[in-house]
Predict the 3D structure of the following.
Amino acid sequence: MKQLLLSASVAMFSFCGFAQTQIGNSDFEQWEAVSSGEEPVNWNSFMTASGSFNSFADAQVAQDTDVRPGTSGTTSARIWSRDAGFGVTANGNLTLGQVNMGAIVASDPANHNITRTGDAEFSEAFTDMPDSIVFWVKYEAQGSQEQARMKATLHDDYDYRDPEDVASSAEVVATAEMNFSPTDWVRMAVAFDYSGPASNVAYILVTFASNATPGGGDPNDQVWIDDIELIYNNNGLSEGNEFPVNLFMNNETNELNFQVEGEPAQFEVIDMTGAVVLSGETSPSVAFDAPTGIYMVNVLVGNESKRFKVYHQ
């Protein structure tokens, strides 16, 4: 559940003059009582669920002293699967939105997590554009082939739901998703895919589930979660104090506009998967008709290089 305190909901970091927003209580050090259980501040699970079947909810999240290696914190969040009756396994579920329990069948679209844009208790307002999300997890499952799930979605001003329906898919700006196998504590990093189709970030919805398949796995499968961080790679990093190249992304003409002092330089454009999508010699106008997203542009002049970050929409 959310607590409407700025210190609990937003952390700001300054680097090269840019404010970089982090998810509130991303280290799971703050907890509060809800119904007959507890939930981490700024996060929600079944005890605050909506939907016609929310009376069947039970606690499936708790604070735990099993924390990731090297942390300065003392608690993590632990979620687990349980036998919900009717032959149904209810997966552990932790989200920045609200859990909706709308059907008995786990895979029914009425069961989803949702950003409630009209309710700060069940939404995370967010307007930045991180490059990736990093988190620590530990996963125990009875089946060695089982997989747990993390999904983070940047979306516009809409009550987006996960899993997506057709309407929600049109409101997505970027997605970072990973399924992972049973493991001891491990740090995972996932790049955001800014392929849209939406372009104006207004909210972020993050979900952790004890199984990637609704109703999958076994009772008592469990996931520990700790120290989530959004990563921002800033523009303008170079070894020297001066660099003879500037770069602007012209989204009206779909061009990279290089301003170069002296001889032309060499450049390469890298997408968020690490693939080189364009390279060549700088010029005032370089055609760049690529999918919507964030790109890194490496520019080389002699023995000096500089990396720029551009957003193409």
Observations:
- Residues 3-19, 235-241 have pLDDT under 50 and may be disordered.
